[in-house]
Amino acid sequence: MKPPPSVRLAISLAVALAALSTASAHAIGRLADIQVIDRDSGETLAVYRHQGEHWVAGRPGARYAVSVRNATGGRVLGVVSVDGVNVISGETAAWQQTGYVLSPWQQHAITGWRKSDTEVAAFHFTASSASYAERTGRPAHVGVIGVAVFREKPLPPPPPAVTPWPSPREQGAAEQRSSSAPASATDTLAETQAGAGEAPRERPGSLAARRMGPAAPMPAPRLGTGHGARENAPITHTTFERRSDRPDEVIRLRYDSRENLIAMGIIPTQAMPPRPNPFPGAVHPGYAPDPS
């Protein structure tokens, strides 16, 4: 007997909701949106949530970029690390180090290890043993991308304007002028324009660099990030004063090959095991025969 349509619909919805809880949106973060982009295919990698961690599946050999978008109305500093290494300075990553400054709502794709103001060495997914971190003697944190986001310290308010108090004689003369000849519309408009003409100070450069256990066996080698070919990626420099010594947000994103994520149960397999049929044969009258 087939279940009623309402039951079948409920089962279908439950399956769909289970899939949605595993594969989330392509970006994570609150103050900044972080995405990983396969530069060879143009694909933005799906983010999978598993036991409180966020994961993406990298394709061995593919170049990739870490895309950071400022999701606030003020400037932010993002200190970016890959495999526990600062992507600008090459130091073992720490919050106090150099990072990228983004203007309000600005997005920037970080495509490699910075080599100068004009070049980077491209990020690419590779076996952990060939990663930049392991080749420089720091294999402990291979397989993780981090962004520490800092808000900017607000500028101090301008000092209040000091207006000298008029003498009684000056005050009486001003009152007499105002009673005999009111201010014209042209005078008022000129004062308004003078006040509006004081533009706020512009900040230099919107994007800039500033100083600042054993794994379980996997079907494929664990992925890391290699030190690839040099590419053109110019930047400028700016100043940025952090609002606090501690980040306002720390975003953590882990990665490995799709094969390994399936083996760890992070990506569910699409293939369902065959369901046995309780009545697979034709109807033959008689009794159960002896096995051969």
From TrEMBL:
Compositionally biased residues, Pro residues: 155-167
Record protein name field: Uncharacterized protein
Origin species: Hydrogenophaga laconesensis
Lineage: Bacteria, Pseudomonadati, Pseudomonadota, Betaproteobacteria, Burkholderiales
Keywords in alphabetical order: Signal
Chain segments carrying region Disordered: 152-232, 267-292
Signal peptide residue numbers: 1-27
Biased composition (Polar residues): 176-191
